[in-house]
Amino acid sequence: MTILEERPAAQAPARAPTAPPSPGKLVDHFEKGLDAPICLTWELTYACNLSCVHCLSSSGRRDPRELSTDECKALIDEFERMQIFYVNIGGGEPTVRPDFWELLDYAVDHHVGVKFSTNGFRITPERAEKLAATDYVDVQISLDGATAEVNDHVRGAGTYDAAMRAMGNLQAAGMKDFKMSVVCTRHNIGQLDEFKAIADHFGAQLRLTRLRPSGRGADVWKELHPLPEQQRELYDWLVAHGESVLTGDSFFHLSAYGDALPGLNLCGAGRVVCLVDPVGDVYACPFAIHEQFLAGNVRSVGGFDQVWKHSDLFLDLRSPQTGGACTMCSAYDSCRGGCMAAKFFTGLPLDGPDPECVKGNAGTPGAVPTSSGDHSHTGPVRNAPVPLTLLTVRPPASPSWAKPCAENPLAGLAPGS
Amino acid sequence: MPTSAPVATSMLAEPWRLDGSVALRPEPFGALAYHFGTRRLSFLKTPELVDVVRRLEHSPTVQDALVGAGVPEPHWPAYTHALAGLARGGMITRRDDA
Question: Number of residue pairs across A and B with CB atoms under 8 Å?
Answer without folding.
Answer: 99
